[in-house]
UniProtKB/TrEMBL annotation:
<protein>
    <recommendedName>
        <fullName>TRAP transporter large permease protein</fullName>
    </recommendedName>
</protein>
<dbReference type="InterPro" id="IPR004681">
    <property type="entry name" value="TRAP_DctM"/>
</dbReference>
<dbReference type="InterPro" id="IPR010656">
    <property type="entry name" value="DctM"/>
</dbReference>
<keyword id="KW-0472">Membrane</keyword>
<feature type="transmembrane region" description="Helical">
    <location>
        <begin position="409"/>
        <end position="430"/>
    </location>
</feature>
<feature type="transmembrane region" description="Helical">
    <location>
        <begin position="285"/>
        <end position="307"/>
    </location>
</feature>
<comment type="subunit">
    <text>The complex comprises the extracytoplasmic solute receptor protein and the two transmembrane proteins.</text>
</comment>
<dbReference type="GO" id="GO:0022857">
    <property type="term" value="F:transmembrane transporter activity"/>
</dbReference>
<feature type="transmembrane region" description="Helical">
    <location>
        <begin position="141"/>
        <end position="165"/>
    </location>
</feature>
<feature type="transmembrane region" description="Helical">
    <location>
        <begin position="327"/>
        <end position="356"/>
    </location>
</feature>
<feature type="transmembrane region" description="Helical">
    <location>
        <begin position="368"/>
        <end position="389"/>
    </location>
</feature>
<dbReference type="GO" id="GO:0005886">
    <property type="term" value="C:plasma membrane"/>
</dbReference>
<feature type="transmembrane region" description="Helical">
    <location>
        <begin position="101"/>
        <end position="129"/>
    </location>
</feature>
<keyword id="KW-0997">Cell inner membrane</keyword>
<feature type="transmembrane region" description="Helical">
    <location>
        <begin position="60"/>
        <end position="81"/>
    </location>
</feature>
<feature type="transmembrane region" description="Helical">
    <location>
        <begin position="177"/>
        <end position="201"/>
    </location>
</feature>
<keyword id="KW-0812">Transmembrane</keyword>
Amino acid sequence: MSDVQVGLLSILLILAAIYFGMHIGVALIVTSFVCVALIKSPEIAARFVAASANDAIRDYLFGVIPLFVLMGMLVSVSGIGRDTFDVFQWLTRRIRGGLGLATVCANAVFAAITGISIASASVFTKVAVPEMIRHGYTRRFAVGVVAGSSVLGMLIPPSLLMIVYGVLAEESIGRMFIAGIVPGIVLALGFLLLIVGMAYLRPNAILDNPALAARHAAESNETWRSASLKFLPICLLIVLVLGGLYGGLFTPTEAGAVGAAGAFVIALLRRSLSWRKLWNVLTETGYVSVSVLFLIISAMLYSRMLALTGMPGGAMQAIATLEMGPWAFLIAYLLIVLALGCIIDSVSIMLIMLPIALPVAQSFNMDLIWFGVVTVVAVEIGLLTPPFGVSVYTVKSALNDPHISIRDIFVGVLPFVLAMVVVLALLVVVPSLSTWLARL
């Protein structure tokens, strides 16, 4: 068996392991060990795994992961999400479909300080869904708009997926963050246009009781002063973190530390952080961070194994033999990512695909920052598609309402999936949307 055949075998082994329920990180490590043992020997494979695990995350840069996760968790428990929703609910109260618009806008702002779609989905499921149902909106629309807009957390910086991509592609994480701003705004605007269109063209799809919605819209005790006070903490945190990062005052890791400290102070001032909640925040941060870092270790090991097999070079030769141009490669790559999104989670897709796809993208002289943004958007679609749909299951578990089934959420989120596909096509056709700000 040739080295390239071993590389092909590694992909089949990983997909089989995932299908039978093995954790993606364990699958990557075991597959890498087996393939190196086939190429060299079991002794060399053991040393290969040990050396790769030791070298993988020793860099100071990896401190950015637990720090941004900690900031997101502190923001989630401080009640900032509810206040943000209240402000946008008041601002959009006179617009048809206003609560849907408020949910998207609040999620976009919330994404600027969390970076985790699951956090956005869990917060706004508890905040926005009951409020929309009480105001006469359909259950499917209520859960669909929350699940759909939650993916903004993985695109608008800081983004956990952008960090993972930056590490795997050896691109600047700060530039990846900046590159996500315009596409994130474009995606949010796409969701807003979708909701307005549904409200005027298919009102029955979003409203069970239009009269009730109109009556509740007129009822609000909010004022400009109270709304400003509610919006002030999140604005300060965004300016502190993103302003310092883009202004060159902080590195991404330092921005994460400053953001976590700022979120901690806000939580203390709002008296929303008891000792029990603090312990839960710290343990949850540890769980998420260790999971992500373990996956990065396994991905780097897998990437080194593929390089040893010559698989990336073999893929480029196969593309040359098939006379596949850059557009054909990109379309095939995105279709595979979208298909994988139906069965495995977003980080796992990147860990499996990028070690193979990045060398090919480089051979076609593709801009790796643009390629990363396109990859993240394609991977995000998988958060909403059946049967896996992490954001969908997060909404279901956070809602805990027997009257709303998983099927209802998948049906409700379908228009948002279609909107994401349109935005993905736009980003592919117009690369400057992803790159011009990062290249300034």
